Amino acid sequence: xIEMSRPDFELLVSEALxxxxxxxxxxxxxxxxxxxxxxxxxxxHLLGIYEGIPLTxxxxxxxxxxxxxxxxxxxxxxxxxxxxxxxxxxxxITVVHEIAHxxxxxxxxxxxxxxx
Length: 116
Description:
By secondary structure, the chain is α+β, with helices and mostly antiparallel strands. The chain has one domain (6-52, 67-113): Zincin-like, CATH 3.30.2010.20. It has 5 helices and 3 strands. The protein has helices at residues 6-18, 22-25, 74-79, 84-102, 107-112, and strands at 31-36, 48-51, 68-73. A 3-stranded mixed sheet has the order 1-3-2. α1 crosses α4 (84-102). It is globular, with a radius of gyration of 14 Å. This is Metallopeptidase family protein. InterPro entries: Zincin_1 (IPR010428), Zincin_1_sf (IPR038555). It comes from Kribbella qitaiheensis.
């Protein structure tokens, strides 16, 4: 396990978000991104989660709702990493994975694409 402060980890998440191609970033709608130290006790090894209504499921009724939420979990991510580069790679993969859920891409497809 590697040690990393929360501000340093948050910076990596921010940098991963900055790497999203502009044409995709422009399509992200009504989403807030958070960093939490620990995953829920029901799934303590979870690296990230998307909670919301994917773009593919939004209809004309969609409006006036709270933002969707992407949460990246610091401690579970650090627990599987040995080097700083491992953390950078894992954060990038997790951020892309959760954004993909916002676009309606399921876990099976993400695993096939190497973002599992």
